[in-house]
Amino acid sequence: MSVGHRLSFLVAAEVLTALALVVLGFVSLQRLASSSQFLHRFVLVPIQAIDVALDDVGYLGKHPRDPADDQLIAGRLDAFARHYGSNIQIAGNAGPDAQRQRAQLQTVGRLDLIDEETHAVALLKQDTERVSAATRGGAGVTPNDLDALHADLRELLRINLEFVDAAEADITASAAHSRIALMLVGLCGVALAGALAWHVRRAIAPRVSLLVQKIKKFQEFGVHERTLIRGRDDIAVLANALDVGFAAIADRNRERERFLAVAAHELETPMASILGFVQSALENPAQRERALHVVQRQTRRLGRLVEDLLWAASVRAGELEFHPVPLDLAEVTRRMAEEVEETMPSHRVSMHGPRSVHMLADETLVTHALWSLLTYAGALSTSDAPIDLAVEPSAARVLVTCQIHGPSLPPEDQMRIFDPFATIQYEVDARPRTTMGLFLCREIARVHGGSLRVSDRAGIGPALTLDLPA
Amino acid sequence: MARNTVLVIDDDPDFREAVAAVLEDMGVRVLEAPDCEAGLTLLARERERVRLVLLDYWMPGRTPVDCMGALKAYTNGDIDIILVTAAAAPAKYAAELGLSRYLKKPFAIEQLRGVVARSLGSTPTSETG
Questions:
Q1: Predicted confidence pLDDT, tens digits, chain A (470 residues)
Q2: Which residues in chain B have their CB less than 8 angstroms from residue A263's CB?
Q3: Residues facing residue B42 across a β-bridge
């Protein structure tokens, strides 16, 4: 399972827990609001009304008073009794609040209060009707009537207060249930998220730690060891990518180090001859002319090698300068062949082609490209074999083909010979050689709008073709 | 028969010539070979005269280790061999060939004279060059 999926599960568990807690909290608050509304409508309002009715009964007992007021108050008490019987009394109510009240009473084992309320309301109705009829007929309210009304209303008040007790018990129980539910959901959510987090940590942390150690080790010591990271998730993919990347960097570093060693060797070899002859000539004047000749040749060779390095750096920085001028490529090629023959006396260059080939090119660059081409050919040619150099002009292009007589170039080396910092060890030569010269030769061809190709002719050897626009 | 001949095996003709010029001024006879095969041929012919071989590391033909193996078969321990190379780590290459003496190119004439004089003026030893 990918790291993203693992983290998604963790986040989903936390979100679900939070959502469940919000829903549960909302439901609990709704229940609380509903209980409060219920208390107000079916308990507090009736108790207030009963209280007002008791005040009215108290007024009827006062002396002296206006008969018209008696009639009005008695009518109001009668209306209250009828209203209570039809709208408030639970026995006659089938609405949800009444059902809830019944459930509350059942919970506290006081369903009998419904019957008691019915009975109390019936008595109240009976007494208020009688008192109302008496006041309408002009008769006064007797002390017995007042006592009866007091008794009815107090009974009703007692029943409603018991309803309050039942509602309170219900709300307390409901609050306790909500608290337990919230705690359970919260604990389950925390446990689930914790378990997932532990699983994610266990699955990710040790491997990430391994990768960090691997990166640090590579940064500090340049050491790379293949990491065994199991699985097929993102971390395993990352570890594999790091392995491949580090191996490539390590290979490239090794190749650069090898290149530097070989390049240093190539530079110091002419230096050894130069120094040897200079010291010898200083001690023995008879050697001077010969020494100067060798120093001139080796210095030229050294200069070409240094140019290789400098121009390879310029090419890689995209700063190779290109100044085309009209030139005779055949003449330049002859000149370079002579220079190479002089530098590599064991090799002869055999030139083929017309005497003159006029074209537009950068003379310095083309000269260097031909030198690189011929010295490379010299390095690969078997001893005493000539290097065949053909200059073939056509309408639009000029091909300079350098045929090497020597062993074939393996396909993998045909790819690598244009790598700027590679070193290749050829079959004919125990010495590894840098490929920088051919890299430079190809780049010089490119800035002219041409190319450098390598091919292999079975039984003869590799051929390098410099293809330039005429 | 005087054993005062030095065999220089190196593919750079200018270097061979420079070494020969210095050593001949010392009165030392010098043989030159451009590669290992030519060196072995000369050694086979002049074995009784050659006292010292100055051997380049990288040359056309045989690998350095092959060349060294073939040379040892001829020298029989009585001819000194000194590695002469422009390689960046000559000690490593000398050790690879089982040699304890080497000269790092480019070198001063005095160094060359010193190692040649030590070889010609002594029985074969394993001193470091």
A1: 667 777 787 788 788 888 888 888 888 888 788 777 777 877 788 888 899 989 888 888 776 677 788 888 888 899 989 888 887 777 777 777 778 778 878 888 888 888 898 899 999 999 999 888 888 887 778 888 889 999 999 999 998 888 888 888 888 888 888 889 888 988 888 888 888 888 888 878 888 888 888 888 888 887 777 766 667 778 888 888 888 888 888 888 887 887 787 778 888 888 988 998 898 888 888 888 888 988 988 898 888 888 888 888 888 888 888 899 999 999 999 999 988 888 777 778 888 989 999 999 999 999 989 988 998 888 777 767 788 999 999 888 999 999 988 777 777 777 778 887 777 776 556 567 777 888 889 989 999 999 999 888 877 888 999 999 98
A2: none
A3: none
Q: Distance (Å) from the C-alpha of residue B75 to the closest C-alpha of chain A?
A: 22
Paired strand residues for B84: B103
Q: Determine whether the interchain pair B89/A264 forms a contact, defined as Cβ–Cβ distance below 8 Å.
A: no
Q: Give the length of chain B.
A: 129
CB contact under 8 A, B22 and A345: no
Q: How far is A279 from chain B (nearest CA, A)?
A: 7
Q: Do A298 and B14 touch (CB under 8 A)?
A: yes
Verdict on whether the full-model pTM lies above 0.80: no
The whole-angstrom separation of Cα B97 and Cα B36 is 14
User: What H or E segment, with its residue span, contains residue B81?
Assistant: strand B80-85
A 10 A CB-CB count for A212 gives 10
Q: Residue A261 and residue B14: Cβ atoms within 8 Å? A: no
Q: Measure the CA–CA gap between A329 and A377, rounded to whole angstroms.
A: 19
Asked if B59 and A430 come within 8 Å (Cβ–Cβ), the reply is yes
Which residues on B lie below 8 Å from A280 (Cβ)?
18, 21-22, 25, 109
* A chain contacts of residue B20, beta-carbon cutoff 8 Å: none
Distance CA B94, CA B111 (A): 17
**Amino acid sitting at position B30:** V
List the single best residue of B8, B12, B14 to mutate versus A (max A Cβ within 10 A): B14
